[in-house]
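Model: You mentioned two targets. I'll fold them one after the other.
Researcher: Yes, keep them separate.
Model: Target one:
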Amino acid sequence: MLNLFGTDGIRGPFGTGLLVHEKLHAMGKALALWALKRYQHNPRILIIHDTRNSCALIKAYLKGGLLQYPVSIFDGSILPTPAAAHFMRDNMLDCAVIISASHNVYSDNGIKIIDNKAGKLSLDDELFISSLIVEQLGAIDVYGECGRDTMFDAQSRYIEQLVRYFSAAFLKNKKIVIDCAHGATFKVAPAIFSALGADIVVINDTPDGYNINKNCGALVLQSLQQTVVATSADIGFAFDGDGDRVIAVNNKGCIKNGDDILALLLTHSRYNTQTTIVGTLMTNCGLEQKLIQSNKVLLRTSVGDKFVLQEMQQRGLIIGGEQSGHIILSDVVSTGDGILVALTVLEALVATDNWDMNSFEPYPQVLLNIPAPRTVALTDACIVDYIAAAQQEIGNGRLIVRFSGTEPVLRIMVEASHYDTAYAVAHNLADKLTPFLV
């Protein structure tokens, strides 16, 4: 059966694929029909989005389909993706539609759906909705009992919820730089950090619909590093466009990625007794060795926060994440929440006075993203030989070659005992594989 959903919902350049008027209209009708069957009452559907210029039009097209049926839409406007999961956890709403392409460029957009258990859709749900979308394409619109559309003050509620998780003014006398990536955190993050007593310096908080993630945020950290050093700040945090990722910079301007954040969270009083955490194939071996020395275990999954969450749920674990900054603290909420994670790290740093953010000794690691206008089978004999030769060059190191599930790129990760080896192997392999991708 056809599944229109990818690794992380539906994503691509706006105006192509499913992100065109007639298909978004059909998707709205399909989501209404799915919600009516799933919840057996007038479903309460939250819609939120990031700051891309295409979000308003996508939302309008979706609403045009949704409102043909007796559903109640709660329009939360611009809000970080993880806010939806907080609302689901409080049983305020039944499901959420999130319009965002996360860390992608402004011209991309996407649609994610989470259910009333704050989880991403099951495969069965994805297949059912996909079949409904196909059925509704070209179908005659219905005009029976129409839905309702209500503006929802989601920003204030989200701010109140996160502030409530932490001690009042626990960040007093701490200077913190926040990079909002011109994205969905640009209003709520400064409000939350300020409410908890921090002296904040905010950068990249003026979205214009086109500058989301542009040379800023969790993927491009130079401006954050420079600002932390220039302002003598205690720490800096960068979020991505939809706020589910976070990367940190310490007081000397050194980058601390998701692996470092996981290690630091294990010094928090709420998590220091956890003996097992979940990472991915990309998790640095240095963290794994650190955990072994502490009689702890790292479980690796495929790359993708949904795989991390699945492993955590299956094993009853409460902490896991990705090197990219998707960190899940499932005792609070079952999705990555960059602001929540940043504040929890800060609690640990306040308690341990570890403002250098010392975490573990990483193995040298090189990650390359190779543009891939088309995908090829990585099982092709010639490609297999190139990968095998590269693996032999690094000996006991690690090599991962995979296509991204969210961007048209081939990712090559090399981990070796020496940086020069990792760098040379990664770039040589990239040169050999690039001709296959054009």
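Model: Target two:
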Amino acid sequence: MKISTVEEYILNAPNGNEMLLFLREILKETELTESIKWSSPVYSVNGKNIVGMGSFKSYAGLWFFQGALLTDKAGVLINAQEDKTKALRQWRFSTLEEINSRLVLEYVNEAIKNQQAGKEIKADRNKPIIIPEELQEAFEENPELENAFQQFSLGCKREYTEYILEAKKTETRKNRVEKVIPMIFQKKGLNDKYKK
């Protein structure tokens, strides 16, 4: 289901509708602009993403796009993907009572100030791309596949290779290679459907 408004997102959220409504009211007190990106509510200033809001099975939460720069005086932020995520941090809420509006506003306002001051953790664009063994085998079997893969930008190549390498089991990695082959031939990036 394609979500086109924040209201629609909250209405269809699997958990924490009241928490999302409350968080939204807090975020609307700021200068942030509300939109839907990647099928979720995202709040930005001057075209830069500051904070997103989401609902998950056991919690609702905020994610700060440059959360690693926040002072986090209350110690509430977590890195959900320790080895992958440099800047993004989450703040999870299990109940409405856990949400302290004053504290949330402090964190959001600090994130806005950091962005306006130009503070930013940038992705490591020079990190070498590691071609998974399973993808290399597919290239050897089909040189046209490798040629199609080489047409992608470095970022798209990295998305594909990391997606395959994330799988711990060989069987899963092989399944992922099979899944992405048609996308590579169609010249589609792995995450194109989430990009606007």
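Researcher: Noted. Anything on target two?
Model: The chain has seven helices and five strands.
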